[in-house]
Fold:
Amino acid sequence: MLSALANPHRLRIIATLESGGRNYVSQLARELGISRPLLHLHLQKLEDAGLVTSQLELSPDGKALKFFEAAPFDIELTPAAIAQAAQSLTNNTET
Structure:
């Protein structure tokens, strides 16, 4: 979960979904100013982490729209939680 939240695009996605409610991919991409392929990549990571949910719906004109919304979550950030998350880090410190 912390890894999914470590990206600024993903933080913006969650903030947009939280403030504006559920939205479909094309509209969300326009609001965020990023491409749909990049948005899909980030949404998949957020969904895998349980931070957003999605639902496929048909529009009145028959188009399939995938709607996303922020999932309720709560993270208690403690030294123990950070120690547990740190176990998944690689030893590569080059950036």
Summary: The chain has a mean pLDDT of 90. DSSP finds five helices and three strands in the chain.
